[in-house]
Amino acid sequence: MATVQVSEAEKVYILHGVRDDLRVDGRGCEDYRHMEIETDVVSNTDGSAKVSLGHTDVLVGVKAEIGKPRPMVPHEGYLEFFVDCSANATPEFEGRGGDELGVELSNTLYKVFNNRSSIDLKSLCISPGEHCWVLYVDVLLLQCDGNLFDAISVAIKAALFNTKIPKVHLSENEEGGKEIELSDDPYDCMRLNVENVPCIVTLCKVGYRHVVDATLQEKACSVASLIISVTHKGTITCVRKVGGGSLDPESIFETTETGKRVGKALHAPLMELLQKEENLGKKRPKVGFLG
Amino acid sequence: MAADMRLPTTRKQVSLSNSLSALDGKDLVVPGDVITSDTGFMRGHGTYLDEEKLTASVAGEVERVNKLICVRPLKTRFNGEVGDVVVGRITEVQQKRWKVETNSRLDSVLLLSSVNLPGGELRRRSAEDELTMRDYLQEGDLISAEVQSVFSDGALSLHTRSLKYGKLGQGVLVQLSPSLIKRQKTHFHNLPCGTSIILGNNGFVWLYPTPGQQDEEAGGYYTSLEPVSLSDREVISRLRNCLLALAAHKVLLYDTSVLYCYESSLPHQIKDILKPEVMEEIVMVTRQKLVEQEG
């Protein structure tokens, strides 16, 4: 993770600010920085989204390909995750520097998103045991300014919402084999139901309190953080602790309650925004990377 | 608890005709612009010869000294000059010197012989002082300093031999572009809103609560870790967001512009200042006030 140096006095200032519920940028402990979301930014993917949260910038592309279902679950498709930490984000990622973080992020994303309670994996099945859709979710970090998990999860949800998988027709040929025919019409496509896709909320323990959407400076003052994925109903689907410090059970309980509340509130405006963008149709101004 | 989500807005096209009057006949070029096809000129920084024509290789302002033509880039790292006030962060403690990050191309140095140690100016620096250098300044600490000299490779040598310079205590650092800082007589200001500000020439701006009684004995190496009052924090946070708003709209930073921006941001909540539409409004009001004050 990109790190910044913070002097002792600055740390004290940040700690006292969090205690008083007034962070350096004027936010309270449970406020997010403002988020900008744009979908359909990469034309050669089936679904894509770009999210910027403060100066954190992530790009997510979803590519659907036909593959073989896993033997244990022949009726389901699956998702693959890959996180690329580009050296654009921070010079630390140069060479193999970003690999460790990339693997850590993609493992967490795999746990959070690739299960049948978040996405209807059965809808990705084409013919049981033989063919299914595999969704390759590629995440590219363009800029790091703290709180990667939350930004990535929102971007993935937006990209999955945006994903258009072409409809397929199965037909039998003369020898009795199956033939897959892809629909040529770009509007004849299948959309994913993203209602149950969770969002991740990262809560950093700073002093005796916890903050959401920590900046790099705040992150430098915290010893441990809790990553919680929450669905729109407020169900917690995954909890992970990162960082070397320890948390006492009471504060974990408190933190998960906050995470649940914040995570639940994240979904409604996101879905509203995605729906709004969808309804704009062709009138939508394309901003892309120049905005 | 609030999550503000929005669609991105397209960047507005700025028509040059409006802002031409503000340029005062300054020659602005972008990479590839032909500056002159006259061969009688010398090629300086930021230019190259393309088919006998002198062409700009960076975006910036053309500077002419007799026969020499340079382009001074607008987006650049800090090019220090003697006497500049800088805010920097210690990155390394070495033999008789500290390495300081000052947003310039090379790390700056602060020599042990060019700091004021506790106990007055005439104190001799012993070998013991060399061993306890980390007690004065350690990695990560922020300092304010002045550029003492510039080495031949462009690295800066700093000094803190005045009570106004030295280690910085509690406060907030804002990192901006050095081109946005207006050169002035003084870069230390006590703003009437109850906060002090150091506008470093290197684009690092330090916001801190106005200190009460200065303790001369400590020579600037004592940092108070007492909690800062909530009202001071609010002012500092507001100023921080104002600075970012001004920087986003490329307004030159000096005490008046910062203060006007602070005043025009008062109707809004601190955390709302960074929203694009609020930012635009505040900066517009600030610009208006600055024009009125000048005219």
UniProtKB/TrEMBL annotation, chain A:
GO terms for biological process: exonucleolytic trimming to generate mature 3'-end of 5.8S rRNA from tricistronic rRNA transcript (SSU-rRNA, 5.8S rRNA, LSU-rRNA); nuclear mRNA surveillance; nuclear polyadenylation-dependent rRNA catabolic process; rRNA catabolic process; TRAMP-dependent tRNA surveillance pathway; U1 snRNA 3'-end processing; U4 snRNA 3'-end processing; U5 snRNA 3'-end processing. It comes from the Eukaryota. Residues 32-166, 196-261 form the Exoribonuclease phosphorolytic domain. The keyword Nucleus applies. GO terms for cellular component: cytoplasmic exosome (RNase complex); nuclear exosome (RNase complex); nucleolus. The keyword Acetylation applies. One of its GO terms (molecular function) is exonuclease activity. Its main location: cytoplasm. Keywords: Acetylation, Cytoplasm, Exonuclease, Exosome, Hydrolase, Nuclease, Nucleus, RNA-binding, rRNA processing. It is found in: Cytoplasm; Nucleus, Nucleolus. Component of the RNA exosome core complex (Exo-9), composed of EXOSC1, EXOSC2, EXOSC3, EXOSC4, EXOSC5, EXOSC6, EXOSC7, EXOSC8 and EXOSC9; within the complex interacts with EXOSC2 and EXOSC4. The catalytically inactive RNA exosome core complex (Exo-9) associates with the catalytic subunit EXOSC10/RRP6. Exo-9 may associate with DIS3 to form the nucleolar exosome complex, or DIS3L to form the cytoplasmic exosome complex. Exo-9 is formed by a hexameric base ring consisting of the heterodimers EXOSC4-EXOSC9, EXOSC5-EXOSC8 and EXOSC6-EXOSC7, and a cap ring consisting of EXOSC1, EXOSC2 and EXOSC3. Belongs to the RNase PH family. PANTHER family: EXOSOME COMPLEX COMPONENT RRP42, EXOSOME COMPLEX EXONUCLEASE RIBOSOMAL RNA PROCESSING PROTEIN. This is Exosome component 7. It comes from Esox lucius (Northern pike). The lineage of its organism: Eukaryota, Metazoa, Chordata, Craniata, Vertebrata.
From TrEMBL, chain B:
Residues 171-210 form the K Homology domain. Keywords: Cytoplasm, Exosome, Nucleus, Phosphoprotein, RNA-binding, rRNA processing. The keyword rRNA processing applies. It comes from the Eukaryota. Residues 28-65 form the Exosome complex component N-terminal domain. InterPro entries: Exosome_cplx_N_dom (IPR025721), Exosome_RNA_bind1/RRP40/RRP4 (IPR026699), KH_dom_type_1 (IPR004088), KH_dom_type_1_sf (IPR036612), NA-bd_OB-fold (IPR012340), S1_RRP4 (IPR048565). CDD domains: KH-I_Rrp4_eukar, S1_Rrp4. Residues 77-149 form the RRP4 S1 domain. One of its GO terms (cellular component) is nucleolus. GO terms for biological process: CUT catabolic process; exonucleolytic trimming to generate mature 3'-end of 5.8S rRNA from tricistronic rRNA transcript (SSU-rRNA, 5.8S rRNA, LSU-rRNA); neural retina development; nuclear polyadenylation-dependent rRNA catabolic process; poly(A)-dependent snoRNA 3'-end processing; ribonucleotide metabolic process; spinal cord development; TRAMP-dependent tRNA surveillance pathway. Component of the RNA exosome core complex (Exo-9), composed of EXOSC1, EXOSC2, EXOSC3, EXOSC4, EXOSC5, EXOSC6, EXOSC7, EXOSC8 and EXOSC9; within the complex interacts with EXOSC4 and EXOSC7. The catalytically inactive RNA exosome core complex (Exo-9) associates with the catalytic subunit EXOSC10/RRP6. Exo-9 may associate with DIS3 to form the nucleolar exosome complex, or DIS3L to form the cytoplasmic exosome complex. Exo-9 is formed by a hexameric base ring consisting of the heterodimers EXOSC4-EXOSC9, EXOSC5-EXOSC8 and EXOSC6-EXOSC7, and a cap ring consisting of EXOSC1, EXOSC2 and EXOSC3. This is Exosome complex component RRP4. It comes from Esox lucius (Northern pike). The gene is EXOSC2.
